[in-house]
Design goal:
Elements (H helix, E strand, L loop, with lengths): L1 H16 L3 H14 L13 H12 L4 H13 L7 H13 L3 H13 L7 H13 L3 H13 L7 H13 L3 H13 L7 H5 L3 H19 L10 H13 L3 H14 L16 E2 L7 E2 L2 H15 L5
Antiparallel strand pairs: 1-2
Helix pairs in contact: 1-2, 3-4, 4-5, 5-6, 6-7, 7-8, 8-9, 9-10, 10-12, 12-13, 13-14
Amino acid sequence: MLGRQASLANQAREASVANDPSAAEYHAKNLETAMSCPLCRAKLPCNEKETFEASLNNAKKGKAYAQHAVATKYEAGRGTRKNLNKAAKYFRAAAEQGHPWSMSSYGNLLEKGLGVGKDIGEAKKWYERSAELKQPQGYYHQGNLYENGIGVQKDEAKAARLYRVAADMGFDIAQCSLGCCYDFGTGLPENPEQALGTNATAMGNVSSTMLKIAAIRYGRCDVAGKSPVPKAVYWGKRAAKLGNEEAAAAVKQIDDLLSGVCANCNKPASSVNLKRCTKCRVFRYCGRDCQREHWKAGHKLDCCKTD
């Protein structure tokens, strides 16, 4: 809604600058209509502050969706001053009405003692209630408790299982955590092939999260000795063979990106004939010298068969 209002406002401004009174009047009327409720014609919020005030008005009427919205704004300081005490108050109000996102958000504040007294046991209860309603953050936060032994007996295997549930729901942070589990063998069988079985979605998640983690840690995915690219391609190809189209597209994109330069000296393919690594078939080199240098620099730690 705010994007449409901004677009109409720009059109009205351009018409005014162009000295076109009829066009300016037309766009001004459209803007006025866009800024009003189509049913009651009440003015709609046009900025963060007005959005907060409108949400606060509904939150005070006891509407759970508005209480959650107000809580997130108090938590982030959007449209109002940051106030974790009020964020906790409204998250709890919405959670008690059955709002699943507020359950996990309130639990997170309880876990960290932000805006409310720290209470791990109570936080865990809210995470569990959220998970019962199939909310991925509820599973993810429980996984974090078990992985680190926060208020519970440390159980890395259970943490990995909880991360996987949230990851399969599409929760990106859980996908990264699951990727870390595979990267470090946390709570998973030594043989990831056995752990993943024929789950194409899980394989695709592992492939993408390996790349995300490397990008976050090192700013890029092709740092020799720390590159997950060959392993990511391996899992991506496995997922593609089982019908995961997103994984197939991701593997092709990786191949296209790496086909343009030598992995060691960055010499472009336009000036030399690049040849693939004979083992992983992922990285390319302009010659044997570059291949040897890259191998010694750390590619020997990253390289694996991908077919």
